[in-house]
Amino acid sequence: xxxxxxxxxxxxxxxxxxxxxxQRFQQLESDIRHYQQYPHGHNPDIKAEWLNEYIDLGLDMAxxxxxxxxxxxxxxxxxxxxxxxxxxxxxxxxxxxxxxxxRDYLYQPLFALQHLYRSQPNGDRRIRVLYHELSVTSxxxx
Length: 142
Fold this sequence. Notes:
The protein is mainly α and about 140 residues long. It has one domain (about 10-140). The protein is built from six helices and no strands. Helix 1 (about 10-35) packs across helix 2 (about 45-65) and helix 2 runs parallel beside helix 4 (about 95-105).
């Protein structure tokens, strides 16, 4: 099943698919955070595919939470993806090319969080905090 396909059904077959998606999400998250453990001969296109699949799975789970009217869970999925990419981009142990790639992909969960926060009380403040944090850290580390 493609990573971008919805996992929102609640039948036993879809429950199994949902578990599989969650396991894949967790594996990709670990691979992203621990990139430096992999031999440097790997194809960089495959690494970009990791990021795309990870983000797609996270956005799918956030959309599933939104469809169930579970705003806090939706935010949690989006922040998890954002924080994984943000923390990896800041991790000085990671190779520069990997940190830069993670930083380049930050816009996707950031825009999704911005969209979510637009409809919430204090949402403008919350998105300003994220942008400020990104701006300040970018000045010092990139």
